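Researcher: Let's do a round of design. I'm pasting the structure tokens now; please hold your answer until I've finished.
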């Protein structure tokens, strides 16, 4: 099994954190977290695979009309779940670009650009200074690069299995384990 769950670079911003298969915390069980910030002060990201089942226009009348009405809504994490966070992803020739915490007007501008995906999140995932590093020491997370096809994959429970399974044969076996081993 590749040792992908140790910190191999100074900042994990722009990486994915995949919950270790043994994680039982309901906030993060089988989660895929896109990291937007990771520095000495702490870390922040959003869970990509917890769809709410609504579009932004259904959630808030402020977005009922206009291009943001169709933006899918996700639970971004357990921190400030009443806060709406808009994020946009762009795949460019020079790599992946994330715009995190954008204002609605900027999200509309970005949405008009080809190859841009906009998502809305209720809350976010956050770690205080040193907290994520301690979790990494306990092998709570598997660090993965953002795959080219991330945004074309189903953004639900299957995303975790798909991305974790790409980290190697042993991870694929762990990702495919049934929730209840008696059902094996």
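Researcher: That's everything. Go ahead.
Model: Designed sequence:
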């Amino acid at each position: 099994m590749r040792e992908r769950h140790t910190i191999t670079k100074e900042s994990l911003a722009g990486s994915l954190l995949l919950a270790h298969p043994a994680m039982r915390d309901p906030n993060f069980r089988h989660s895929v977290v896109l990291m937007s910030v990771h520095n000495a002060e702490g870390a922040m990201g959003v869970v990509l695979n917890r769809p709410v089942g609504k579009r932004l226009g259904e959630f808030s009348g402020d977005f009922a009309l206009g291009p943001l009405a169709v933006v899918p809504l996700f639970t971004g994490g357990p921190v400030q779940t009443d806060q709406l966070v808009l994020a946009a992803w762009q795949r460019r020739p020079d790599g992946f670009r994330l715009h995190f915490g954008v204002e609605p007007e900027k999200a509309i501008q970005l949405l008009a650009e080809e190859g841009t995906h906009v998502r809305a999140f209720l809350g976010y995932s956050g770690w205080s200074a040193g907290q994520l590093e301690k979790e990494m020491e306990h092998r709570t997370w598997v660090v993965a690069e953002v795959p080219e096809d991330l945004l074309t994959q189903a953004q639900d429970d299957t995303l975790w299995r798909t991305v974790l399974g790409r980290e190697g044969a042993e991870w694929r076996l762990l990702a495919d384990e049934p929730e209840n081993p008696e059902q094996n």
